[in-house]
Automatic annotation (TrEMBL):
Gene3D superfamilies: Tetratricopeptide repeat domain (1.25.40.10). The lineage of its organism: Eukaryota, Viridiplantae, Streptophyta, Embryophyta, Tracheophyta. Residues 23-36 have a biased composition (Low complexity). This is MalT-like TPR region domain-containing protein. Residues 47-56 have a biased composition (Polar residues). SMART domains: TPR. Residues 381-408 form a coiled coil.
Length: 592
C-alpha cells in the first residue's frame, strides 16, 4: 500500500552568489582565493552551513535587451574603466541592466585588445557578466558566458590562470545548482576541484574548503558514498594542517556525521557528533552545541534510545529559548522532533500537542524568517499528521508549503518532493485522479532537475503507476512500472525490496492485461528471491506462493522452480505487444 511509502523533501537549492572583482587604479585584481559559499544552504542541525553573504537573489522584472555599439570599443583603456563602472553600479544598487551593459562592453573591449594569449581581465569580466545575468534571473544566458570564461585561461601560464579557471567552474556549478540541474552542478564542482588540486596540490587547506563544498553538493544530490569519501579527505587535511580540535574540524565532523546518518550508520554518526560537540563546548559555541544536540537526539531516536533522545532535545530546547526566544524557528524545529518521537512511542496526544506548538510559531514567525524554512517545517509536520491519519490536515499543510515556495527553479526539487508526498496522501484517501496529477507533476520536475536516475525517482514512478491502475489506465501503468524497474535495478539492485515491489506490480499489470505467462515468470523470480532472502516460512513468501498458485491454476500448469534469468525475462516482456485489458480484476494485488 502507498501508506508505507514516505517521501522525504529534497534539500533546497541555494540562491546564486554574485562575484564582482575589485579594481585598483584601473587594474582588475585577482579575487579567486576568496572562500566560496556552500551549495547546501539548508539549515540542518547536523551540518554547519557555510557562509553565503556574497549571494544575491534574482532581481524581479523583465531585463532589458542590451545592444552594443562596436565602434565605441576602439579605445584599449576602455575595458578596465567599464568594468569599474559595472562594479560601482552594482554596489550602488542602481539599474542592473546598466551594470550589464557596462560589463558586456568591458568584455568586448578586453576580447578585442587581449592579444594572442589568454587574458585574465577578459575572464573576470565574463564572470561579472554571468553574475549580473543570474541576478536578473537569466540563468540560461549566464551558462554560455561562464563556459567561455573557463576556456580562456591556460593553466600552463601559472597559478593565476588555474585559479581563474577554478572560479569559473565553481560559478558555473552555482548557476546549474540554482537552475535545479544537480548532476551538471556536481560535475562542474568536480572539474573545479581537479583544477585547484593541479595548481595547489591535494593537501592544501584551500582544497579542503572545496572538498567540503563538493561534499555538500553530493549530499544535496543524495550521493552519500561520494560525500563520505570527500569528508574523509577533508579530515586528513585537517590532521596535517589544522590545530587539534579546531572549529573547522568540528564543522566537518558534523558533515560526515550527517552522511553516516543518511546511510544508516548511526553509531559512526553518533561518534562524530559527540566529538564535534566536545570541541564546540570547549570554544563556547552554545548555539552550535544546541544544534548538535538536536542531531544527537535524532541518532538516539533512530537507535530507539528514546529517553536519551528526549534529554538531548530538551537540552537544545532550553538553549534555543534562552538565546533566540520562544517564537524562533529553531524552537519549532525541536517541537517537531519531539512530536515525531512521542508518535513513535505511542503517546499520540503529546505528539499532536507538540505539532500544534510548532504550528503556532510558524503562524507568527519572527521578522526576517525565510519562507523556505517555514515551508520545510510545515512539510515535516504534515508527515506527522499523515502518520496520525489526519490526511486532510496534512494535505492542507503541504499546500501551504507549496504556496510559500512558489513555482521557481530554485525550489523545483523541493516542490517535487512535496507533490510526491501529496500524491501518496491523495491515493490513501481514494482521490486517485488527484494522486496521478501530483505524481505526474513531481516526475516532470525531477526529470527537468536531472534526477531521473535516482532511487527516489523510481519510487515516485511506482507510486504513479499504482494510481494509474486504480484509474484503469493499465497500459500507462505498465510503462511507469517498467521505467521504475529499470531505475531501481540500477540504483538498488534486482534483489532490493523496493525493486521486488515494482516487479510484483509489473506482474499484476501483466495479469490484468491477460499476459498470464509473463506474470507467472516474473512472480516465480520474485518468489525465488524472497525464499532465498527471507526463508520459506516468512509470511511474505507464503503470500507470494498463494498468488502464484492462483495464476498457475488459471494457466493450467505447475510451478517452474528453475525460472528464467530476470534479464532475459524482462527484456522480452518489454518488447511484447500489449493486449487489451481483460475483464475482471487481477488475481493478486499491488505493492508500493
Amino acid at each position: 500500500m502507498p501508506a508505507l511509502f514516505s517521501v522525504k523533501t529534497q534539500p533546497k537549492t541555494s540562491p546564486l552568489r554574485i562575484f564582482v572583482p575589485e579594481t585598483q587604479n584601473g587594474t582588475t585584481t585577482n579575487n579567486y582565493n576568496n572562500k566560496t559559499p556552500s551549495p547546501l544552504t539548508k539549515r540542518v542541525p547536523s551540518a554547519s552551513p557555510s557562509p553565503s553573504n556574497s549571494r544575491v537573489k534574482p532581481t524581479k522584472g523583465t531585463p532589458e535587451k542590451v545592444t552594443i555599439d562596436e565602434s565605441s570599443l576602439d579605445n584599449p583603456d576602455l575595458g578596465p574603466f567599464l568594468l569599474k563602472m559595472a562594479r560601482d553600479t552594482i554596489s550602488s544598487g542602481d539599474n542592473p541592466n546598466k551594470a550589464l551593459d557596462y560589463a558586456i562592453r568591458a568584455s568586448k573591449s578586453f576580447e578585442r585588445f587581449s592579444g594572442p594569449g589568454p587574458s585574465l581581465e577578459l575572464t573576470m569580466s565574463l564572470h561579472v557578466v554571468a553574475a549580473i545575468y543570474c541576478s536578473l534571473g537569466q540563468f540560461g544566458e549566464a551558462v554560455p558566458v561562464l563556459e567561455r570564461s573557463i576556456e580562456v585561461p591556460d593553466i600552463r601560464n601559472g597559478s593565476d590562470h588555474a585559479l581563474a579557471k577554478f572560479s569559473g567552474y565553481m560559478q558555473l556549478g552555482d548557476t546549474y545548482s540554482t537552475m535545479g540541474l544537480l548532476d551538471r552542478s556536481v560535475s562542474s564542482y568536480e572539474s573545479g576541484l581537479n583544477t585547484q588540486i593541479e595548481a595547489l596540490g591535494d593537501s592544501d587547506p584551500r582544497v579542503a574548503e572545496t572538498c567540503r563544498y563538493l561534499a555538500e553538493a553530493h549530499v544535496q544530490a543524495l550521493q552519500f558514498d561520494e560525500a563520505e569519501n570527500l569528508c574523509k579527505k577533508i579530515l586528513e587535511i585537517h590532521k596535517e594542517h589544522s590545530a587539534p580540535a579546531s572549529l573547522e574540524e568540528a564543522a566537518d565532523r558534523r558533515l560526515i556525521a550527517l552522511v553516516y546518518e543518511a546511510k544508516g550508520d548511526y553509531e559512526s554518526a553518533l561518534e562524530h557528533y559527540v566529538l564535534a560537540s566536545m570541541v564546540m563546548i570547549a570554544n563556547g559555541q552554545d548555539i552550535e552545541v544546541a544544534s548538535t544536540d538536536v542531531s544527537i537526539g535524532n541518532i538516539y531516536m533512530s537507535l530507539c534510545r528514546f529517553d536519551e533522545a528526549i534529554f538531548s532535545y530538551q537540552k537544545a530546547l532550553t538553549v534555543f529559548k534562552a538565546t533566540r526566544g520562544d517564537n524562533h524557528l529553531s524552537v519549532a524545529s525541536v517541537f517537531i522532533r519531539l512530536a515525531d518521537l512521542y508518535y513513535k512511542i505511542g503517546k499520540l496526544r503529546e505528539s499532536k500537542s507538540y505539532c500544534e506548538n510548532a504550528l503556532r510559531i510558524y503562524a507568527k514567525p519572527v521578522p526576517g524568517t525565510a519562507s523556505e524554512e517555514i515551508a520545510n517545517g510545515l512539510t515535516e509536520i504534515s508527515a506527522i499528521y499523515e502518520a496520525l491519519n489526519e490526511h486532510e490536515e496534512a494535505l492542507n499543510l503541504l499546500q501551504k508549503a507549496m504556496k510559500l515556495l512558489g513555482d521557481t527553479l530554485v525550489h523545483r526539487s523541493t516542490i517535487a518532493g512535496i507533490e510526491a508526498q501529496m500524491g501518496v496522501m491523495f491515493y490513501m484517501v481514494g482521490r486517485y485522479g488527484d494522486a496521478r496529477c501530483s505524481f505526474e507533476s513531481a516526475v516532470a520536475k525531477l526529470r527537468a532537475s536531472g534526477e531521473s536516475k535516482s532511487a527516489f525517482f523510481g519510487i515516485v514512478l511506482n507510486q504513479m503507476g499504482l494510481a494509474c491502475v486504480q484509474l484503469y489506465r493499465i497500459s500507462e501503468a505498465i510503462e511507469l512500472f517498467e521505467e521504475a524497474r529499470g531505475v531501481l535495478e540500477q540504483e538498488c539492485g534486482s534483489c532490493h525490496l523496493d525493486t521486488l515491489g515494482v516487479y510484483s506490480n509489473l506482474a499484476a499489470t501483466y495479469d490484468a492485461m491477460g499476459r498470464v505467462e509473463d506474470a507467472i515468470e516474473i512472480l516465480e523470480y520474485i518468489l525465488k528471491v524472497r525464499e532465498e532472502k527471507l526463508g520459506t516460512a516468512n509470511p511474505d513468501v507464503d503470500d507470494e506462493k498463494k498468488r502464484l498458485a492462483e495464476l498457475l491454476k488459471e494457466a493450467g500448469r505447475a510451478r517452474n522452480k528453475k525460472g528464467k534469468s530476470l534479464e532475459n525475462l524482462l527484456d522480452s516482456n518489454s518488447q511484447r505487444t500489449k493486449k487489451e485489458v481483460r475483464k475482471g480484476r487481477s488475481v493478486f494485488g499491488f505493492r508500493s
